[in-house]
Amino acid sequence: MSSNLFLKKINILFFLCVLVLSASVSFSMEDQEAAILTDAPSVPPPITRSNVAKIIIHLEVKEIQGRLADGVQYTFWTFGGKVPGKFIRIREGDFVEFHLDNHPSNKMPHNIDLHAVTGQGGGAAASLTAPGHSSVFSFKALNPGLYVYHCATAPVGMHVGNGMYGLILVEPKGGLPKVDHEYYVMQGDFYTKGPNGQQGLQPFSMEKAIQEKPEYVVFNGSVGAVTGDKALTAKVGETVRLYIGNGGPNLISSFHVIGEIFDQVWAEGNTNQISHNVQTTLVPAGGSAIVQFQVNVPGTYILVDHSLTRAFNKGALGQLKVTGDEDKLIYSGKVSDEVYLPEGTGIRVVEQRSQAVPAAKTKVERIERGRTVFTTNCMACHQANGEGIPHAFPPLAKSDFLNSDKIRTIKAVTGGLQGKIVINGQEYNGVMPAWTLSDEDVANVLTYIYNSWGNSGKEVTPAEVKSHATKRN
Is 436 exposed, middle or buried (0-12, 13-18, 19+ CB in 10 A)? Predict the structure, then answer.
């Protein structure tokens, strides 16, 4: 056989291989669709088609300045303009054409590593993109499950620590069970140069990131992002499914909903295996979980990382507000209350790290600084909107207890409260700890409270606090 004939046969075989490969990834226009991408806590609608399709995804990287906590700004690096990144929903077997667009105003190159991708770097090498450029690659969704995606550009810990992560759901061919509500919640740890609560624009601290000592641990990108008017909602009798992710970059999450038991858990995003009746599920950094439960009685259910100082001191706290009729057989609420004081019992004092801050010069400054004190110390119980939690923590909003007597309020904060009190016609009987805050911080937080949520607008000064504070031994 001549060499020319041999080369011709090789070329013909190569051409046939290209045709076969092209045929394997070609789709009619009816089988192509643009992916629906959503911001947390929203989730794209379930996939109802039974066939595979070609999915076109455009995901834009944007470096933006935004709120990390009240008074605290941060430069987030994002997939889609928010943290976490857009929720992506596709079906097992789909062919995905992925476009990563790096906005021209950005300062850094970025890429994407999708844990749902089988291939080099999960797409990272194919998607390294300079500002003002767009990279395109494709993959086939071979494995069903809930997967994390994140930036993998060096230094990877910095890119992820600045918020570059999200979730992609590859629905199994048979789909997932129908539920009434689906929500997207993703945890992340943030490493700011300044301490928790320090005001202003905070830069990323590589030193703290390496030491794995975050100042903030939050759901959906900021303190309070899933609370108050941004809380998740449901009605009694409905089923709720949460798609939980953990962007890290470092901490493992112990995800728990206070007052609920997970009827079903797809641990680590594995849709092939279900656990039942789970109280708390571990979500590794760079991992996920799907939890599902029916809500049986009304209330405000608190989402937490059960490493609890993260929840109550660093921000990993959210809310699910459930409305509807009570069922006293399932949960009675408090039916009696008796005093129980063993020998030696006293009002506990919560230790608080002191911070030297400049004294507020105006009422406006006092309100702004008081907002930070409230977020750090009071919001977990009394809630971001001051409404408290019924039958547990009294409201601060339009509180007759606060507005009628400023001196009594100062004594309550500095000395604590114990026993029955009536606020806005509702009886409460519990213990409020005394906080070892400075006179300046007490004045600031009370001024903030008095000037929020329909309260009287009073100002409290450090001199008034010093004069009327409850004296401790």
Answer: middle
* Rg (alpha carbons) of the chain, rounded to whole number: 27
CA 233 from chain centre, in angstroms, equals 15
Q: Are 409 and 441 in contact (CB under 8 A)?
A: no
Query: Contact at 8 Å (CB) between 323 and 270?
Result: no
In sequence order, which ranges of 25-70 are alpha helices (DSSP H)?
A: none
Q: Alpha carbon 9 to chain centroid distance?
A: 59
- Write b or e for each residue in 241-265: b if 16 or more Cβ atoms lie within 10 A of its Cβ, otherwise e: bbbbbbbbbbbebbbbbeebebbbb
Measure the CA–CA gap between 392 and 267, rounded to whole angstroms: 32
pTM: 0.75
* Omega cis (within 30) before 249: yes
Which pair of structure tokens corresponds to residue 33? 């669709």
User: Tokens in use for 438?
Assistant: 């400075």
What is the C-alpha separation between 126 and 313, in angstroms, rounded?
40
Kindly provide the b/e burial profile for residues 399-411, where b requires at least 16 CB atoms within 10 angstroms of the residue's own CB. bebbeeebeebbb
Written as six digits, the tokens of 460 are: 């409290």
**Nearest of 414, 383, 389, 417 to residue 401 by alpha carbon:** 417
Residue where the block lists tokens 């088609």:
49
Given a cut of 70, the residues of the chain with pLDDT beneath it are 1-30, 337, 339-341, 343-357, 391, 430, 471-473
3-class SS of residue 471: coil
- Taking CA atoms, 197 is separated from 194, 223, 369, 374, in Å, by 8, 11, 9, 10
Which candidate, 153, 163, 115, places its Cα nearest to that of 131? 153
For residues 226 and 78, give the distance between their C-alpha atoms in angstroms, rounded to a whole number.
18
Helices 363-377, 439-450: axis angle to 10 degrees equals: 100
* The pair of three-digit structure tokens given for residue 60, joined into one six-digit string: 């834009």
Amino acid identity of residue 19, one-letter, is L
Q: Are 76 and 66 in contact (CB under 8 A)?
A: yes
What pLDDT is attached to residue 391? 67
* pLDDT score for 210: 97
In the chain, the amino acid numbered 72 is V
Which residues, in sequence order, are bridge partners of residue 170? 90, 145
DSSP conformation letters of 10-53: HHHHHHHHHHHHHHHT---GGGEEEPP-B-TT--PPPP--SS--
